[in-house]
TrEMBL record:
Coiled coil: none annotated. Keywords: Cell inner membrane, Cell membrane, Membrane, Transmembrane, Transmembrane helix. This is LPS export ABC transporter periplasmic protein LptC. InterPro entries: LipoPS_assembly_LptC-rel, LPS_export_LptC, LptC. Gene3D superfamilies: Lipopolysaccharide (LPS) transport protein A like domain. The keyword Acyltransferase does not apply. The lineage of its organism: Bacteria, Pseudomonadati, Pseudomonadota, Gammaproteobacteria, Oceanospirillales.
Length: 187
């Protein structure tokens, strides 16, 4: 028979081996977070935000709505969740611009839109059109938008595609930059 001391030594060996293995081979994902991985901090947020930019004559120049706006001070920017921007057009129509997400720098000189960007042109007279792209930068003070990404425009059954676009809201003008292709149907 084994003595008390031998049984204690065998038990300690059997328990120590798995404990040592578990402690030495633990994956890093279970390790506590250290100061090496910075966590972005939000200093304020706004739910159901509505931002209006006015023209000098007091009329609405632009209306931006978003269900959630979060400000990140280290980035000096606000992140927008599914932003929608309404820009009044000439002669009573309007443009409606939407995206999955957006970024509004503190300078407020531009809005970066990304993910399923759609621009609906809803003129007072004539046929509406839809423009889609992956990314678009909107410059509110200049009534201007730009992208270097592929663009697709559709008006009725007519389609136009291009790579890159400049859009001048105040002039109601679109400049397509390269690889322009169109398909038009005579009615």
């Amino acid at each position: 028979m084994l003595s008390q001391r031998q049984r204690l030594l065998i038990t300690a060996t059997l328990v120590a081996a798995p404990l040592l293995w578990w402690g030495l081979i633990t994956p890093e994902e279970n390790a506590p977070l250290t100061g090496d991985t910075p966590v972005e901090q939000v200093d304020f947020f706004i739910r159901n935000a509505e931002i209006t930019r006015w023209q000098d004559d007091g009329t609405v120049a632009q209306l931006l709505t978003t269900p959630l706006m979060q400000h990140y001070p280290e980035q000096a920017a606000m992140r927008l969740e599914t932003p929608v921007t309404r820009v009044p057009g000439k002669a009573g129509g309007h443009y409606l611009l939407s995206a999955d997400q957006g970024t509004l720098p503190d300078s407020r000189q531009q809005i970066l839109l990304a993910g399923n960007v759609q621009l609906h042109d809803n003129p007072a007279a004539g046929q509406p059109s839809l423009m889609t792209t992956d990314q678009l930068t909107l410059y509110p003070p200049r009534d201007y938008a730009h992208t270097d990404h592929p663009v697709r425009m559709q008006r009725g059954s007519d389609t136009t595609s291009a790579v890159g676009m400049d859009l001048f809201f105040d002039q109601q003008r679109i400049d397509l930059l390269s690889d322009v292709k169109g398909e038009y149907h005579v009615q």
